[in-house]
Automatic annotation (TrEMBL):
Residues 33-197 form the NADP-dependent oxidoreductase domain. Pfam families: Aldo_ket_red. Substrate binds at H122. SUPFAM superfamilies: NAD(P)-linked oxidoreductase. InterPro entries: AKR, Aldo/ket_reductase_CS, NAD(P)_OxRdtase_dom_sf, NADP_OxRdtase_dom. This is NADP-dependent oxidoreductase domain-containing protein. The active site is at Y59. It comes from the Eukaryota. It comes from Solanum stoloniferum. The record marks K89 as: Lowers pKa of active site Tyr.
Length: 269
């Protein structure tokens, strides 16, 4: 049965940049299906009602997302590029003042788009430059992690925004202390800090969901017509917290800037 698009309209939230962002987005992080299957799945998502898509240089899904948007435009499922909200992220190998803009231009080239709606710093992490590495954007060697030039990276993000290549800019996986440090010198404050939370929609936050199964993709949009009771929220809040992002395995190294997960999260977890 084909669902009526009007039943699947997702509300927007206003960002401090003056732009609107759909409250529910579809994630395209690994593990991904093959390229053609991913394109087909993303077209299904647009047909169902998704208008916000979250990708990243490191995910390997930017080309498929760009192709899906182009095909839905050709089919008339959407009337203009402005009807979709595209988020992508700067990878750690490009968290250098002079590499941010070239990285964004490569992302736009893969998407075949003129701008992003939102560009995020993927992690507060910088890795050494390896100019001759063909797969540099996919590299994650914790031995190569060096101190994060947060100010230089953020000022380069601001330049991307001023050039019109990103309508809004923000961060991902930043603890509050790091975020407050950016606010001390930012001329364009972050519009978003993307983190993993429980019951996010119930807390008034935007949520990125992920499934490549069409039925579950539909179900993920159906959170709009029901809500958790106070008792259910209380029960969820009693669940002991755990970390889904394995910081120790990915980021902690005796010779690196982060010696523990506690240090990475500025003592917040």
């Amino acid at each position: 049965m084909t669902m009526n698009m009007k039943q699947m309209l997702v509300p927007n939230v206003n960002l401090n940049s003056g732009h609107e962002m759909p409250l529910i987005g579809m994630g395209t992080a690994p593990s991904l299906p093959q390229h053609d299957e991913l394109v087909s799945t993303l077209i299904d998502a647009i047909e169902i009602g998704y208008r916000h898509f979250d990708t990243a240089a490191v995910y390997g899904s930017e080309e498929a997302l760009g192709q899906a948007v182009a095909e839905t435009l050709q089919r008339g499922l959407i009337k203009s590029r402005e009807q979709v909200f595209i988020t992508s992220k700067l990878w750690c190998t490009d968290s250098h003042r002079d590499l941010v803009l070239p990285a964004l231009k490569r992302t736009l080239g893969r998407l075949k788009m003129d701008y992003l709606d939102l560009y995020l710093i993927h992690l507060p992490v910088t890795m050494k430059k390896k100019v001759n590495s063909k797969d540099d954007e996919m590299r994650f060697d914790k031995e190569d992690i060096i101190p994060f030039d947060m100010r230089g990276t953020w000022e380069a993000m601001e330049e991307c925004c001023r050039l019109g290549l990103a309508k809004s800019i923000g961060v991902s996986n930043f603890a509050c202390i790091k975020l407050s440090q950016i606010l001390h010198y930012a001329t364009i404050p972050p519009a978003v800090n993307q983190v993993a939370l429980r019951c996010v929609y119930e807390q008034g936050a935007s949520v990125i969901v992920k499934s490549f199964n069409k039925d579950r993709m539909k179900e993920n949009l159906h959170i709009l017509d029901w809500e958790l009771s106070n008792e259910e929220i209380a029960q969820i809040q009693e669940i002991p917290p755990c970390t889904g992002f394995k910081v120790d395995m990915l980021l902690i190294h005796p010779n690196g800037p982060y010696k523990s997960a506690h240090q990475f999260w500025d003592g917040e977890i």
